Automatic annotation (TrEMBL):
Gene Ontology, cellular component aspect: endomembrane system; plasma membrane
Family from the record: Belongs to the patched family.
NCBIfam families cross-referenced by the UniProt entry: 2A060601
Annotated SSD domain residues: 593-758
Keyword Membrane: yes
Membrane topology: Multi-pass membrane protein
Top-level division of the source organism's lineage: Eukaryota
Protein name according to UniProt: Niemann-Pick disease, type C1
Main localisation: membrane
Amino acid sequence: CWGASSVEEGGVVEAQHCVWYGECGNSTSVPGKKYNCNYTGPPLPLPEDGHDLLLELCPGFAYGNDSVCCDIQQLQTLKGNLQLPLQFLSRCPACFHNLMNLFCELTCSPRQSQFLSATSFSYNNVTNTTSVEAVQYYIGQTFANAMYNACMDVQAPSSNVKALSLLCGKDAKDCNATNWIQYMFNINNGQTPFSITPIFTDVPMANMTPMTNATRGCNESLADGSGPCSCQDCKLVCGPMPVPPPLPLPWTILGMDAMAVIMWISYVVFLLIFIGGVLVTWCYRKRAIMSEYGKFFIKTALCKPSADEVTCCETLGQAFEVCLRNYFSVWGSFCVHHPLVIVLCSLVLVTACSSGLVYMRVTTDPVELWSSPRSQARHEKEYFDMHFGPFFRTEQLIITTTLDSASIYSPYFGGPDVPFGAPLDKGVLHQVLDFQTDIENLEASYGNETVKLKDICLAPLAPYNNNCTILSVLNYYQNTPLSPCMEGKIFAPASLNDTGPLHDPCLGTFGGPVFPWLVLGGYDATNYNNATALVITFPVNNYHNDTEKLNKALAWEAEFIRFVKNYTNPNLTISFSAERSIEDEINRESNSDVSTIILSYAIMFIYISLALGHINRCRRLLVDSKISLGVAGIFIVLSSVTCSLGIFSYAGVPLTLIVIEVIPFLVLAVGVDNIFIIVQTYQRDERMLQEELHQQIGRILGDVAPSMFLSSLSETVAFFLGALSNMPAVRTFSLFAGLAVFIDFLLQISCFISLLSLDIKRQESNRLDILCCVKLQESQESRTEGFLFRFFRQTYAPFILKEWVRPLVALFVGILSFSIAVTNKVEIGLDQKLSMPDDSYVLDYFTKMSQYLHTGPPVYFVVKDGHNYQTVEGQNSVCGGVGCNNNSLVQQLYTLASHLLNVPLTRIGFPPSSWIDDYFDWVKPESTCCRVYNSSGAFCNASVVDKSCIHCRTLEQGKARPTGAEFMKFLPMFLSDNPNPKCGKGGHAAYSSGVDLTQNNTDVGGTYFMTYHTILKNSTDFIEAMKMARILADNITQTMNPEGNASHVFAYSVFYVFYEQYLTIATDTAFNLGVSLSAVFVVTTVLLGFEIWSAILVCLTITMILVNMFGVMWLWGISLNAVSLVNLVMSCGISVEFCSHIVRAFSVSTAGSRVQRAQEALAYMGSSVFSGITLTKFGGILILALSKSQIFQIFYFRMYLAIVLLGATHGLIFLPVLLSYAGPSVNKAKALATRKCFTGTERERLLNF
């Protein structure tokens, strides 16, 4: 039996004598550990077979003749106890040297009795031995401080934390020299078999001399040749820390926004010049025109140019105009002569093209929608997926509690009590655990199979450990209420004090650590105890190339969403999202908006059908109406859309939702405008004597078709050139839109003309519209001007072009100046909240994510194939330990994460996990991690007890890192080693997917070093994070390739592929709009008979509309992204409709002055544009405001409304006034030809309109 004895029974210890020697008796406090035997004699010689072990553990100590106060068994116990500190601290040789100094002196020093005093003993009557149960260890305070200073910065790469956080019993920021040593010597830490009380003093006390051995600073080399610690592990080694550049100051003038000041000054200067010019011109005219016949003479001179005054360009322009007019006249006449043939051929063509819809594919994959296959992000994503597997699917819960409970935790070793918030209350955690367990046990049906989480989850240690990765605070307790951590008195999951035998945070059931910043939210700084939310994440395997497995994951996610939606607990508030949530909600949103879209188009269709008719008398209402023709026109417009979709479906080009939603709106605007122009021109025309219907319609088509051709060809070319864009959404839209617009034009000048002729014949024979078999009694048809045309001709056009009204258009320049000033302030990106319906559960998740989460998405710095890890130089350029370059990959990331955290510049939140640094620690001969069977050379795990297992490398070899073939020999073993209590550095869980071994495990291909972004809350944060990560990756690549080596590093995160577009969207927008305007300019120049000035005025007006669109976007909170860029490209096309018809009408007019020509163009074309585009679209657009979809309300209702209003005001107000001031002179060749053509006819009076 055991008996207690006093200090006196043990005898008085004399100087230069031992306190113990050997082991005897089992520890009653820590099962499996032994006490040391009480011994007060002189040091004893160490047996010869223990010399190597002493040299291995205490290489820097010279004990003379190797007479020490320990035997071989004690040395072996010391070696076992120091395995964990060795694995975490040996990366800094000076730190570990000082630590070994502390323990070697304690265990074996021949002068042990000078600083070690035994205070409690126990006696074993059976073995007749006395065991030491407690001692006092006198340690120099200077020594303790120096030891702590050498170790305080050492990192634990696999955990992204400082090593002392795992070895001090508390977070590293709360650790100091005193409480660290106290924790290591405390009997409650699960490792110390008996109580060791450290007493810190630099002067002798109580007849004891403190242990004050010399120490090494972390910036000092050791006698065995080991170099200083790395910068990552020792701040003293680092050079000057990089000073972050100051944030760019806003560009200001006199404290005001510079662009605003410049534009307002420019506008004031313009006003002064413009008003001055108007006044000077007015005074000049007053003096020049002295008689009442002055204007008549001027007009006559302008209208009757001589043939000698005609220039070559004017002649060419007239010839081109005549050619177009004649061609379309002949074609129109042919269509009227053979209406059934044309209609039948059109139907066959439409059917053939539309049949391609059977091959239609709609792309819903966000990657395909927003990222170009040729983009950097796509290439990097494909590389990452190929070498490391696709990024996992994420199911995440953010849980808060309605309870106001709190708990108090008392730290192990002093310090104030730590209060914990309500979410960390034990009762709340039990409720959350029940909820989490229910989710783990969810069963989803897929076909005839049942799918559970374990079938699809990420299990990094499979097949050895099939437990799912669950990132939850409950995994500190292995997701069970029976865990010792949870049931015992240790209850502080967020303080990192929950240590088991590993001295590490309680590992999750999946075999890896659970980081507090991933599972807790709503805390300040690193005070995890203040957490106000719990975050639970279920990573699920992604199966890009396995549809069967992907569908199983989707089925389980659907069941997960259903379960959480229906889950109720009055104490818990749960926000959640699954990987499929966003796509599901967008689909639901699209379905809910179908009725709104249908109503919008229905209103436009009804208006078109009714507005085309020109009703003179109520009796002829059903005769003069053109409902059937309007429906046919709409059918033609929609047919052009289906033809475009079908043709590209034949070619295998997939559709997108943007194409389906936007193109009908665009083509309807263009097509309806042309329909109104054709029909209203006919309604205003009078058939000449001896002229038949086919000749009249041919003549009318010859008048209006060139204008339609101008606008349609301009839009078609502009859209096709827009397909040069790198953005898939813009490119696809441009292709489909360009073809649809052109097919619409072809159908309108053929099929619609034939249908119009049939409808005219019906009307002339007094047959009812729709019910064409019913015929009214013959009555005299009288032609009158329509109200809208009469209003434009008699009231609106003369008013707008009055001498005192025209200068008011200077307001348009003011609006333009404002828009230019705010264009650079339009926000870039797409707030993901906008893509969700108003009642979506995902909106609540987005809100809670911004409110509570402290960590952004993981970011991987990938080193591509080609880097040589087998050479010292190659290792030094990436690693972060001893001997590594200060500008290595790991060191640069560590520096940015550690020293610039308070500056939101790099967006790197944590030091990276480094497989190569952990590998070097794992392979050290002092560690028990790397062992092989002596006979076979196969790997022997540290947990295996077998005498045939030997260290991979000898102590002599261990002085240098493994290189060459030796490096590759042990690397596969490291990547397959599971962490265990005797070796926490096994790389299977943390790094097995991060290192791509090639050539039958004889070389290293691609690898990655993972860290996390800081919390990213909006598009700007995501864009800046990606931008800075790429800059950093490029800088690392340059430092790794001083001599042009093949190493290349890129940064990858799962969101880069979606946000890359925003890095170049400003230039993409300028390119797309610039190309479109260039196309409009070239086509307009050619089709207007090479009138360059007219083309310039068209492009100027369209540019003003586009710039003003940016002003509206800033005022209305519309961000610049792919959706809004598509709308801007579309607005360029619609703007052509608003401008080109009026400019062409002005160009071909032969009226006397610019004002008269502008008035004529506005009267004849303005009314058609207003009724065709403006009124048609306005009613339909207003309905979009009723949509429940935020994205519809913002990017469709607001932008469409702005497009129509800006187009109408510029086309019907600004442009006519601009033409009256600065329009091109009349084409003299056209004027001569017009007079020659119409002199002596009933149309001669139109010459003097």
